[in-house]
């Protein structure tokens, strides 16, 4: 049965479906030796598919890792400027991994790495509203009114954010800083930083501490571990419950 090329690539662990579409459009994919740039192109089971000159393995084992991304690392599998990327930490892993979503260069914390494109799409789809908790060190003393605004939604890029959970952890009067926990389920570009900017409390340091049912417990910056079958099942269950 013929399937769309980007779907086959995602299932083979090349990249997420959306990222695979970009790779196709850039002319980096060949099917039976012919360069394909058409996003609707369909392939058969016995077709030969190569990306950047390397044949893809359609039956590659699906693997899932929880990674504690350090600050100063790019959420990408390569960088044309030679900067450190998340895939550098997985060079000993035989499967071709890519990140689920992204964390900014200067943001640390929880990131899922996998070669399962369908799983990645499921986790990233805004419809499913998977909660993510961030710990932010901000400039200024957070107030109850600030927390109320963050919780009810603030205007960023001309649109109001969805309701969130905001909680003060601590304040330092002398340094004029605060530590705040913010839980959101959206994934807008630079969303957390922009939310704090909207209340005039710029972020100085940011880390993602949870993703759905996952936490960073037991890991230090730069470390990773494989997700258990139960953890993967719980994440998928989260998505399923939101479909009902």
From TrEMBL:
Positions of the RNA-binding S4 domain: 3-61
* Main EC class the enzyme belongs to: isomerase
Q: Give any Gene Ontology cellular component.
A: cytosol
Please provide the record's keywords in A-Z order.
Isomerase, RNA-binding
* PROSITE patterns with a match to the protein in the record: PSI_RSU, S4
Q: Keyword Isomerase: yes or no?
A: yes
Q: Name one GO biological process term.
A: enzyme-directed rRNA pseudouridine synthesis
Q: Which residues cross the membrane?
A: none
- Gene Ontology molecular function terms on file: RNA binding; rRNA pseudouridine synthase activity
InterPro entries hit by this protein:
PsdUridine_s_RsuA/RluB/E/F_cat (IPR042092), PsdUridine_synth_cat_dom_sf (IPR020103), PsdUridine_synth_RsuA/RluA (IPR006145), PsdUridine_synth_RsuA/RluB/E/F (IPR000748), PsdUridine_synth_RsuA/RluB_CS (IPR018496), RsuA_PseudoU_synthase (IPR050343), S4_RNA-bd (IPR002942), S4_RNA-bd_sf (IPR036986)
**Pfam family of this protein, just one?**
S4
What family does the Swiss-Prot or TrEMBL record give for this protein?
Belongs to the pseudouridine synthase RsuA family.
What NCBIfam families does the record tag this protein with? pseudouridine synthase
Q: Which PANTHER family match?
A: PSEUDOURIDINE SYNTHASE FAMILY PROTEIN-RELATED, RNA-BINDING S4 DOMAIN-CONTAINING PROTEIN
Name-wise, this protein is Pseudouridine synthase
Q: Which organism is it from?
A: Ligilactobacillus hayakitensis DSM 18933 = JCM 14209
């Amino acid at each position: 049965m013929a399937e769309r090329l980007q779907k086959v690539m995602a299932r083979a662990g090349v990249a997420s479906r959306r990222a695979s579409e970009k790779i196709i459009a850039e002319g980096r994919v060949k099917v039976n030796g012919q360069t394909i740039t058409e996003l609707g192109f369909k392939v058969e089971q016995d077709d030969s598919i190569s990306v950047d000159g390397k044949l893809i393995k359609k039956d590659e084992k699906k693997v899932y890792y929880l990674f504690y991304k350090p600050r100063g690392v790019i959420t990408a599998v390569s960088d044309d400027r030679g900067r450190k990327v998340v895939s550098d930490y997985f060079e000993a892993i035989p499967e071709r991994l890519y990140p689920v979503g992204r964390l900014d260069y200067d943001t640390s914390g929880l990131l899922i790495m996998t070669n399962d494109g369908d799983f990645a799409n499921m986790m990233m789809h805004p419809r499913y509203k998977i909660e993510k908790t961030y710990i932010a060190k901000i400039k200024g003393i957070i107030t109850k009114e600030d927390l109320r605004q963050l919780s009810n939604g603030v205007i960023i890029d001309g649109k109001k954010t969805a309701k969130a959970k905001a909680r003060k952890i601590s304040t330092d009067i002398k340094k004029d800083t605060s530590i705040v926990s913010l839980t959101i389920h959206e994934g807008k570009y630079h969303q957390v930083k922009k939310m704090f900017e909207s209340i005039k409390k710029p972020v100085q340091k940011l880390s993602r501490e949870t993703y759905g049912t996952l936490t960073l417990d037991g890991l230090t910056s730069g470390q990773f571990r494989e997700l258990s079958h139960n953890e993967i099942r719980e994440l998928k269950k989260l998505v399923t419950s939101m479909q009902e």
